[in-house]
């Protein structure tokens, strides 16, 4: 068992401490902010708030040299030499924020890289996500494996009403179930290329549809029940929708550490060489055999 990396632990402490604040702020931030992010997508007030809180918390961690966010054009310098003792942290502050209005699950995605960004997923030293579901959980993957924690605010009796946050490990060795049960495929069916459509028709006959519109929630179902999640290449968007640095890479790292596989349709997601931190990539992730069948289907 490798000793936990103190900087990685401090990053996920900061993410866990911020999660209840983000969750508590969501009811008042279900409206569009009126701005677009670097990916050209409209940003919700909740996205901006989560980005602000997480940016402050993560850049304050000793050992974090650079910070990248879905909501910010360029990397934020956090004062460390990335790759030479300091890490670069990439986040999706609020994944699935279109679920805010419909009150469905959403989350926060975190990748901790040991190289300046943009970098490949092979430079990840840890990754994780917070899931704002009926309860708040955090999945963390590092060299020693994958664990699931419950994140709770604790009221402590001091006079300023300050409240601590507790992290309780509920699954110390999270593994992808061998037998696949669920699938979730994003995008509109008419926009799927023919080869993916043929593959999807096979999977529909074998598994149960579970698609909630937030990658974190949909991937968490795959990690819980076994199966496959995809946001595929689309006819008019051959790079798909998800961003490599702060969506696909961290999810691929987590699922592969849990015994699964992740592909862009041709190669392991973690080997995809990005040009920019907002590069998009098709993502097919989960059960190894199903991912292999997908790569053959797209051949
Ligand atoms: P984000 O809210 O960070 O932009 O991410 C949304 C992504 C991802 O969470 C999800 O898998 C996908 O968008 C859903 O896209 P569709 O609405 O096209 O299904
Ligand atoms: Mn997202
Ligand atoms: Mn987002």
Averaged pLDDT: 95
User: Quaternary status of these chains?
Assistant: single chain
Task: Assign the structural class, choosing from mainly alpha, mainly beta, alpha/beta, alpha+beta, or little secondary structure.
Answer: alpha+beta
CATH topology of the largest domain, anyone?
A: Fructose-1,6-Bisphosphatase, Chain A, domain 1
N- to C-terminal distance = 39 Å
Order of helices and strands: HEEHEEEHEEEEEEHEHEHEEH
Strand content: 25-35%
Q: C-alpha Rg, in Å?
A: 18 Å
Describe the largest sheet: 8 strands, mixed
Please, what is the CATH homologous superfamily of the largest domain? Fructose-1,6-Bisphosphatase, subunit A, domain 1
Task: Give the low-confidence spans.
Answer: none
Q: Which strand order do you get reading across the main beta sheet?
A: 4-3-5-6-7-8-9-10
CATH class assignment of the largest domain? Alpha Beta
Number of strands: 15
User: Helix coverage percent of residues?
Assistant: 25-40%
Shape: globular
- Please report the number of helical segments: 7
- The CATH architecture of the largest domain can be given as 2-Layer Sandwich
Give me a quick take on this structure:
The chain contains 7 helices and 15 strands.
Strand and helix map with partners:
Elements: H1 6-25, E1 32-36, E2 42-44, H2 45-59, E3 64-69, E4 76-77, E5 87-95, H3 99-102, E6 106-113, E7 124-132, E8 136-142, E9 145-155, E10 163-171, E11 182-185, H4 194-206, E12 208-209, H5 215-225, E13 227-231, H6 244-257, E14 261-263, E15 283-286, H7 288-297
Parallel strand pairs: 3-5, 11-12, 11-13
Antiparallel strand pairs: 1-2, 3-4, 5-6, 6-7, 7-8, 8-9, 9-10, 13-15, 14-15
Helix pairs in contact: 1-2
The structure holds 2,5-anhydro-1,6-di-O-phosphono-D-glucitol (AHG) and manganese (II) ion (MN) (2 copies).
